[in-house]
Amino acid sequence: MTTSIMLAGDWHADQHHAKQCIRKTAEQGIGLLIHLGDFGYGFPSTHGYLRHVSAAAVENNVELWNILGNHDNNDDIEWLETDDEGRKIAAPNVLILSRGHRFVIEDVSFTAIGGAVSVDKQYRTEGDDWWISEEITDEQESAIRQLPPTDVLLCHDTADGYHIPGLLSDREFTAAFGPTVRAEAETHRQRISRIVDALTPSLLIHAHYHVAYEHNRLSTSDAGVEFTTHVIGLPAEESPGNLRHMRIDGRTITV
To answer: Which residue from 6, 65, 200, 213 could staple onto 25, CB 3.0 to 4.6 Å apart?
Structure first.
């Protein structure tokens, strides 16, 4: 039996695009849509957004699971109720997967981690459109690395060790945002790399960079074994490829 799910990149509280993605998911007979961060959760200026997205998900009989990115209020989920599977309930049919949340579909294991650095945080206001909890912490990284191996790593940021197509060069990035932010962003990618080395996923899917691309990344596990992770980056709202169809047949994954 083949199971289908949808995956989506950044939406940035674009209500029209979010509802369109939910409808497209339902039209293909798919009941689960996993969003990979920068959903736009918890911004004071977007209260109506969550309500409308939730209504669309209920109307279309789609569950929307979210990992949180840097443009989501990670502080707010502490107060949310938790369902029997350990997911946070943001609204009807809208759930949030905490960092390190694991689940299995068919015979394929998934681990959700989220988190990233806002390179423009110097222009944002803490508690309004930026939260210090956007990054994976030392404690969270350590806990995640103790988890069992996973087949699929669901991220907002990605691992380091390669250049993402279409992005600024290191020199251009430093000139645009400064050396401190560049170092913080690279440090966060290094965190993801250490998690990859511990959990040895065959597939990593992420958002954040607003670029559609694929890359095979060679790694060495904590046990000293070489392995390859296929990395898929999803672009942002209104871009072709923001919504991707994943098919699972036993242990075979097609995206």
So the answer is: 6
